[in-house]
Amino acid sequence: MSAITSRRSARTLIAATSIMLLATACTTAKEPPAHKDGALGSLPSQSGKPKDGGTISVALPVGLSPSTMFPLPSSTDIPLGNQLLVRNLYAEADVGTDDLVNAEQSLAELPEFSSDGTTVTIALKEGNTWSDGAPVVADDLVFTIDLIKAAVGLSAVNWASYVPGGFPDNVTSVTASDDHTVELKLSEPTNPGYFLHSVAIQLKPLPSTAWNIAAKDGAHLDFTDPANAKKIYTFLAEQGRVLTDFATNPLWQTVNGPFRLETFDPSTGGYTLAPNPAYTGPDPSRVDAVQFRPFTSTQAMLNQLLAGELTVGALDASFATQLDALEKKGYHVYGRPGPAAVNPLVINFANTTGNFDKVIAQLYVRQALQHLIDQPGYIKSRGVYNGAAAPNYSTAQAGTPYAPEFGDEAPYPYDPAAAKKLLTDHGWKVVEGGTTTCVSPGTGPGNCGEGIPQGQELSFNLLYANAPASNVNRDLAFISEARKLGITITGEAKALNFLYKNTDNNGSPAYKDKWAMVDQGAFTMGAYPSASIFLSSKAFFNLGSYNDPKADELIEASVHSTDPKALVAETTYLGENLPWLFMPNVDNIAVWSDKISGPPASFANLTAYGLVGANPQAWYFHS
Fold it and tell me: Disordered: where is this region (predicted)?
């Protein structure tokens, strides 16, 4: 048996097994609790008398282990610690509130804009310090911005949110007008909502008096000199990726968050945080340690929860029928779709393998594929979401201020007959269960389209993360539906770390022709869900090289215009033009032991970003 044959057989077996599991689940599984007020389960009130001490164990997202300690990530980096070690300039608002940010957890007051939108003033709060005793000051934010400028000057992929011409290119000057005030001059007006939620909320002031070096034990350099900034950035980025030094490198012990890194296992990605004794922010941790434990599968995580071996974990939607069992084991369960989340199949418009770039450039092809995605069916299926998801058809969710004009009415609802008609009307011979081919090449209204030759097959690959199971099953269901219309989609399960590293045309150009679509799971668009960093033709997080002049025009308007309808026009067009194929927004289901408590919002926030957004400083064991 050849390697190709064996891999094809393995994929067939996986698909068949998943279909059998779906069928079995539909006859034996118990219905999960219904959603109430958009949520699965309910949040318990804060309770019990806090006890100091104890160790909280938190599951890491399956397949996602840290790859850097440096808090300025490139497009392929996975930083450790989130806001727990080095605090964000602005903390995300609590789930369920209308606040712009979490003001208490933020290091600065909300930015103030000049009347023409070209000057931004940021006032840092006083009283916050680094663990080495130095205060958190305006120079620390200037240091961060100078390093980001240096990073993108060396390579555009060095700042995950970089869009050429946007931040930091549009910053003509950044100055510390006093110890706690930073003033940014911009080259053009910027929408305040965009700046806050797409730029400022991603910034972290960094310790400018400890990290302004370009070698171990090196001299402290003037980081405002661009040449020095490049040297400092290069050194810190390289040091940050040495996994074996995560817990021992003195650089990473300078923190201002509620925790410091105590241990790190480079072989598994697991790590332990201990409280930062010099922490000066709100809610210092009461526990002795927080262990972040790695898992190879969502099933393994569920097993540990059912065994009572985890304090905090997540439940894949495919296991939503286990809610009762978990509650009987002494866990609270709460889930809802992440705010501003999008669950796309990312399309690689630059993949030339088998003329995929020519085929997928045709809007009617993308429309036909979207018609094959059974969002309502996936949501109801006990083998996919078990009811723990909500439909979504654009880059903003229905019911939000920036929802597309079509609201919750799908532009391309599940309709295989409509998909077939689109293909046959454009020159394809659809052979159900066989191989669909182009029989009418050309660029006319009834032809296949530019660059698509006679006999072209509709065939491509789809890479997807091997966890969670709900994503795997939805992708297999989509592949099966396409097969019915003679569209061959080869599914390949990969570790999430692999997908982050490789399925990115800007970060990994050598891999460009090896993937046609990818399912990396959810993206979070932010409270102002402009797709600037995701789908602008210039964006370096534009994984699949989407390039549409009208989309660029609308994105530019949403970034720079003060017109409140500008972003609605963008989200409407993107839902209709299909830069991605849209899947339902799955509930992020948080599970935590009733042995711990804390503010309800601190647990509800787990549904925003899942376990990667855990903020355990507010949790405590209670009597």
Answer: 31-55
Burial of 442 (0-12, 13-18, 19+ CB in 10 A): middle
Helix (H, G, I), strand (E, B) or coil at 335: strand
Model confidence pLDDT, tens digit, residues 484-523: 999 999 999 999 989 999 999 999 999 999 999 999 998 9
- C-alpha pair distances (Å), 371 with each of 168, 278, 418, 470, 560: 39, 56, 7, 20, 34
Positive/negative CA dihedral, 281, 285, 289, 291: negative
Find residue 580's DSSP bridge partners: 346
The 10s digit of each residue's pLDDT in 206-223 is 999 999 999 999 999 999
- Judged against a pLDDT cut of 90, whether residue 121 lies above it is answered with yes
The helix (H) or strand (E) run that includes residue 358 is: helix 356-360
> Which residues are CB-contacts of 516 (< 8 A; sequence separation ≥ 6)?
347, 348, 351, 353, 356, 360, 460, 461, 462
- Report the distance separating Cα 514 and Cα 499, nearest Å: 12
Strand extents, DSSP E, 474-537: 488-494, 517-519, 523-524
User: What pLDDT score was predicted for residue 248?
Assistant: 97
SS3 92: strand
The residues, any chain, with a CB within 8 Å of residue 173's CB and separated by 6 or more, are: 183, 184, 185
pLDDT of the residue at 339:
79
Q: For the residues 589-616, what does the mean pLDDT come to?
A: 90
Q: How far is residue 161's CA from residue 526's CA, in Å, rounded to a whole number?
A: 12
Higher pLDDT, 11 or 207: 207
Fold of 28-62+257-336+591-622: D-Maltodextrin-Binding Protein; domain 2 (3.40.190)
Length of the chain: 623
Would you list the DSSP string of 12-30?
A: HHHHHHHHHHHHHHHHHPP
CB-neighbour burial class of residue 201 (10 A; exposed 0-12, middle 13-18, buried 19+): buried
Grouping H, G, I as helix, E, B as strand and the rest as coil, residue 199 is helix
User: Which of helix, strand or coil describes residue 178?
Assistant: strand
The domain limits of the chain are 28-62+257-336+591-622
Instruction: State yes or no: pLDDT of 181 exceeds 80.
Output: yes
The b-or-e profile of 317-333 (16+ CB within 10 A means b, else e) is bbbbbbbeebeeeebbb
Structure confidence by residue, pLDDT tens digits, 71-114: 998 988 889 977 899 999 999 999 888 899 999 999 999 999 99
